[in-house]
Amino acid sequence: MHAPAERARRVTIDPGGPLVVEGPVEVALDDGSVERSERPTVAVCTCRRSRRYPWCDTSHRRRSRPPGPAADKDGGGGA
Amino acid sequence: MTARSGLPKPRGPLSQALVGALRHAQDMPPDALSRAASADPYGDDLQLALNILYELHYQGFDGVGDEHEWDPDLLRLRAALEATFLDALRGDVAQSFPASRVDEALSDLLVEPARDDGTSLSHHLAREGTLGQLREHAALRSIYHLKEADPHAWVIPRLRGRAKAGMVAVEYDEYGAGHADQLHQQLFADLMTDLGLDTSYNHYLDAASAEMLAVVNLMSLLGLHRALRGALVGQFATVEVTSSPGSRRLADAMRRTGAGPAAIRFHDEHVEADAVHEQLMRHEVVGGLLAEEPDLEKDVLFGIGATVLLEDRFSAALLAAWREGRSALREPL
Ligand code: FES
Ligand SMILES: [Fe+2]
Ligand SMILES: [Fe+2]
C-alpha cells in the first residue's frame, strides 16, 4: 500500500482582507520574532492595521461616512 | 455550568398552561392553540412559552421528564407559536430589510460605521458602560452563550459538501477544537465568574427580557426546521460577520472597568475567532450552500434580516432601560 500523497495546504485570499490558511501557523515577523496560532483555520492579516497583528481582527474593513446603511450591527459581541 | 435550573415563572396564559403541563402533567387547555395564534408575537408570554418548548431539545429543566421532548400535544402548541412568530418576522423583515441579494446584504454588514449614531449597544458599553451594565448584559446574553453554537449544530445534517465542511469547521472552533476548557460556552461561564454572576445553566431565564428570548428563539426555530436551513445559515453568517468589531468594543469595556482576565479573554477570543468564522461563513457556508441550492437565496436573506431586526430590538430595549435609569432585567441582579 502506498501512503496517500500529502495534500497541499490551500491558502485563500480575501480581496482587501486576510490570507486564510489551515492552522497551526507560524508567522515570522520583521523583527525576527515568530508568532504562532493553534487555530484549525487562521486568518493572517495583510493590511497591517490589525491590533492583534499578525492575526486579522477585521480592521481592514471599509468605514462608512456616518451613518452608513449598515449603521452599527453589534453582533452581540461574540458568536 | 453544571447544574440545570427548574422551570421559569409563567408570564401569561400560554406559559402558565405550559408550565402546568410540564410540572403537573396537566392537559393543555382547549383554547391554547387559538391563544397561540392571537398572542403578541414578540411578547413575554409567547417568547417564554417557545423558549421552554425549545429547551426540551437542549438541556431541559430540572424536574421535567425527557419524554416531553416529543409529546405530540406540546409539538402542536410549538407549531402554533412558531407560526405566529414566523409570520410577524416575515412581515417585519419585508418592511425593514428590502435587500434582494445575499452578497450585497453581507457586504453592507462588512462596512463599519465611522462613528456611533447612538443606537449601538457595544459603542455605548465601550465608551461609558458601567460594570453594572456589563453584568446585566452578560446575564441576559447567558441565555444564549451558555449554549453557544448549539442551535447551529442542528443544521449540519441538512447541509452537504462545502457548506457542511465549512459549518463543521466553525462549530469545531466554537466547541474548543477538542478542548473542553476552551469551549466558547465555558469561556462565557468564566466571564460570568469574573463578573460575579451565577454560571448555572438558564439561571437568568426569569430575568431575561422578551427581546433576549426572541434572539435565542430565532436560532432554535431556524435550526430545528430543515425547511429553514437557508435562514439558519443567514442568521449565523450575520452574527459571525458582525461579531469581531463588537467584540473588540466589549473587550475594551471589560478592560476599562477592570472586569477581570476571563471577561476580557472571552471577547478577545471572539475578535480573533470570528475574523476567521466570517471568512468561512461567507465563502464556504453561504457560498457553498447557494452554489448547491441557489433557490435558497431568499431564505438566507430572511435569516439575515430577521437577525438584524431582533438584535436591533434587543439593543434598543437595553439602551432605553439604562437611559431611564432602570434595570434591563425583569429581576434586577
Ligand atoms: S487583514 Fe484583517 S485586519 Fe488586516
Ligand atoms: Fe464563539
Ligand atoms: Fe464564532
UniProtKB/TrEMBL annotation, chain A:
Gene Ontology molecular-function annotations: 2 iron, 2 sulfur cluster binding; metal ion binding
SMART domains (alphabetical): ZnF_CDGSH
InterPro entries in the record: FeS-contain_CDGSH-typ (IPR018967), MitoNEET_CISD (IPR042216)
Cellular component GO terms, alphabetical: cytoplasm
Lyase in keyword set: no
Pfam name, any one: zf-CDGSH
Iron-binding zinc finger CDGSH type domain sequence ranges: 22-66
Name under which the protein is recorded: CDGSH iron-sulfur domain-containing protein
Automatic annotation (TrEMBL), chain B:
UniProt xrefs under SMART domains: Haem_oxygenase_2
Name of protein: Iron-containing redox enzyme family protein
